[in-house]
């Protein structure tokens, strides 16, 4: 720097401080237009002067509405400066423009959002802090402005990179401190819910799971929430599942979406929301073409159906039962044929059958040949269904024989695992044997469940299981509550979209677990249809955006 430029720099800085001093001393700052204009003009000089001007322009902004345009334009020029220090100082000053003039919040949020893609850490950090400051000042206006950059069907986002940055900011910075930000609580929780619902019209699978996890964490959807709130959530999930779309068995994306949404909707069904729309869709579109589904998705679908079956209404149960009985017959062989039987399929189907039949027992008379009397015309006791009973009980007996033989071999295998564990030298070998033991244990649980569910079905007037006495083999047994002092609270969803809810339900490792369980049972029994093992775990995702309808 030359002596001349150094002198100019010193002069500009001295002038700046003089302007600021006069403004600080003034009792009616709006009269000091000359001084504020001087600050704006000085912002076009040296780097040091620019850094100072970046502090002073927003500080006195509210007093000079006639200069708001030039002031903001000059400040935006500072944000685009090559010098990082100037840019960071200008970013830090942005929230001050809105402190007493909230009408500028949307514009300032828009500016900050564009800066989220900065490659400089210190600059991004300043942007994050500035956005958080705005959220603290006016959470409603700031959230509304932020969510506009996520987009919807009517107002799609025009910049995918910015959209991703905004989503990451909301997930990582906003959601974790919702309790502090969303005040007054009920009003602001409702506001962000409405913003999310609009955004769900155009999201990926991972984004949908992230938003649903957040909604479930809000107090308005908490344990004390009325049934209407559960209906609202199941409605959102139903919209995303595309239940109004024509089903195409070759559309793997829609199948994944449907399975994911079934599982995401289950907690709301458990709390009283209706599953009718899902069940009707399954009954009309999925179950009739079940054999044509991708092998790796069949078990997902059966498990989802099993888990939702305890919460079906009698009307839905009667409607879907016939198709379920047909699936039971498809996968429970009448006699040995040399083909493998998929034990987990059978467990799912028997569990579903019991819970549906428990609600409409006399519907099984014409389907399975039972003689259940309710006094209703639907008993159909005057008709002869004895051949159905004979066929159904033959299937039960054959499945029981296959299951007992498999249990014997699994038990023998467990003894072998125990011996191998005692002889194992390396940690790797011990871990491998431990996994085998766990798989064998799960296989035995599957077999025990099958026998417990087939046993009452031999009677001509069976008692169907409608309680929680059967714990599905892939689900963890109910454990005592964790003491409050050691319990951990759930944080945000990881970026890969893994589901907190599913891990609590014991489904988190569903794909791998079922591969291993079926492998443990593979070749130990014959008879009936072959059921493929799962080739991959449930991704809980679907391709691209734009398919879901949210809750329009």
UniProtKB/TrEMBL annotation:
InterPro entries: API5, ARM-type_fold. Residues 525-545 have a biased composition (Gly residues). It holds the Pfam family API5. Keywords: Apoptosis. The keyword ATP-binding does not apply. Residues 475-510, 523-552 are annotated as: Disordered. Transmembrane segments: none annotated. Belongs to the API5 family. This is Apoptosis inhibitor 5-like protein API5.
